[in-house]
Amino acid sequence: MTSGWTNETAIQQWSDSAEREALEATAADGDFAKRHLINPDQLRLLGDVSGQRVLDAGCGNGYFSRMLAERGAHVVGVEPAGGLLAFAREKEGELGQGVSYVQADLTRLPDLGDPFDAVVCSMVLMAIPDWKPALRGCVESLRPGGLLVFSVVHPAFEQLWTSWREHGEYRTSRYLEEYEIPGHAPDFHRPMSAYLNELAALGCRLREVVEPGLDPAVAAQSGVPGIEGYVRMPNFLIVSAETPS
């Protein structure tokens, strides 16, 4: 259950929590986790995007859209939260990378033009109460044989840092049910099988599943208590799949 959350109320919460200082601090390549655990594998899975039409579904402050544009992609970023979208558009005005930013709920995508060669949905699906239509929209926006890459907080290790810091190991007592994860904006726990089975139901072919671990040297340099948990266990799940040709 999603504790009464709707997509609209979740979007409003994300928009309200968009603080300028945090947006600026993550404008180049995201936060620590995105820099070291998510971006490298997402970019590897997407491959050479030069000249490709790419949808950044749930683009947030636009940092990954900008990284893709730097690599030669023709990027459309879709973001429903007004505060995040305004920042992304502001950066596009400064940089002029040719990224087109559209305000829309991923569950109700507007006409975005020609089908995309690739769609990336980075750390978004676990934040959407009614997530299945959003995943379907991503798949349906792809050309035949197009590539989908998405990442979520790993459903088996969502509280990794706090658990490791407190216990020196990971502990969990709930996995198979769906529930809300409290935070500055909501996330929702679902088992990994929910995401993979929905991909299969949409006719996608799984290409690769990545459970990235943190480089021990990066962990040691950070000096953050409990960060060694990220070396031993994956806090994130990254999936690539393709639509039928």
TrEMBL record:
Residues 55-150 form the Methyltransferase type domain. It comes from Saccharopolyspora oryzae. One of its GO terms (biological process) is methylation. PANTHER family: METHYLTRANSFERASE, UBIQUINONE BIOSYNTHESIS O-METHYLTRANSFERASE, MITOCHONDRIAL. One of its GO terms (molecular function) is methyltransferase activity. Keywords: Methyltransferase, S-adenosyl-L-methionine, Transferase. Transmembrane segments: none annotated. Pfam families: Methyltransf_11 (PF08241). The keyword Repeat does not apply. The keyword Acyltransferase does not apply. It comes from the Bacteria. This is Class I SAM-dependent methyltransferase.
